[in-house]
Amino acid sequence: MSYARPDALVSxxxxxxxxxxxxxxxxxxxxxxxxxxxxxxxxxxxxxxGAMFFDVDAIADETTSLPHMLPSEEKFxxxxxxxxxxxxxxxxVYDRAILASAARVWWEFRAFGHDRVSVLDGGxxxxxxxxxxxxxxDVTPTAKRFVARLDRSRVRDIEQVRANIVAKREQxxxxxxxxxxxxxxxxxxxxxxxxxxxxxxxxxxxxxxDPDKKTMRDGDALAKLxxxxxxxxxxxxxxxxxSGVTASLLALGLHLIGRDAAVYDGSWxxxxxxSDTPIxx
Length: 281
Prior knowledge:
By secondary structure, this protein is of the alpha/beta class. The chain has ten helices and ten strands. The chain folds into two domains: 145 residues, 3-Layer(aba) Sandwich (Oxidized Rhodanese, domain 1); 119 residues, Oxidized Rhodanese, domain 1 (3-Layer(aba) Sandwich).
C-alpha cells in the first residue's frame, strides 16, 4: 500500500535535485534527551548544505518548566522567520536519529498553520550513507516574515486528556517503549511516576522506522502496526509520549496513511509529574 499523503515525506534523491531552490528551506531538527547530546553542537559538525538549525528547546514556551512546549504564535513566527522561513516556504525537516525530532518540528509547523512541510525520509543518516555533501558551522539566513496561527484541533492539553478518560471520544496512543508504558522501567526524566494514562494503548515510535533502511515503513506496514496496537483507524486518535517528540512520529505515521491525530503536548512530562492525574500500570 502506498501512502495516502505522500507529500509528508521527501526522498534524499528528491532533495538532492532541489537543494538549490530558493523556495525550499531545509531545517535540521536534531534533538537529544537530557544528557545524551546537544543538537546544535552536532549540527555545527555536519549538516545539509544551507540547512538552518531549529532548536526544539528554544523555539518553545519558556514560561513553563515543561520541556519544549509549543510557544506563542508571536514567538514561533518571529523565531521561524529569523531562520529565513516565510509563509510561502516549502520546509524540509530532518534529524540524525529515528526521525522523531524531525516529526516533532513537522507537527509544530502544521500546528501553527503551515502545511507546506515535509520530513526527509531517512534523515542525515541516509544522506551521508549515500556520500552526499554536508557542511560544517552555522548558516546565517536572511530573515523573512512568518505569520503563525495556532490550529488548536491539532493539540491536546492535560484537561482535555483527563476528560477523555471518562468520555472516551478519542483513542490515546503512547509512543514510549513497552517498559516505560507498563511502568517497568524508570523514566529518563527524574521525578516522574511510572505507568501510563488510563485506557491508552502502546505503539513504540521506533516500530514505524525500518531498522535497516532507516526510513518510514510503507503504508501497509504502518496500517498493520496501528491496528495491531488496537487502534481503530476510523476513530479519532491523540498521541502521547515522554515530552511530545516521539508522539509526533506516531502523528506523522497516521498522517501518511490518511488519518489525522492530535498530539498531547505535555505528554508524560506533565501527566507523570502531577499528583492528581490517574495512572495505570
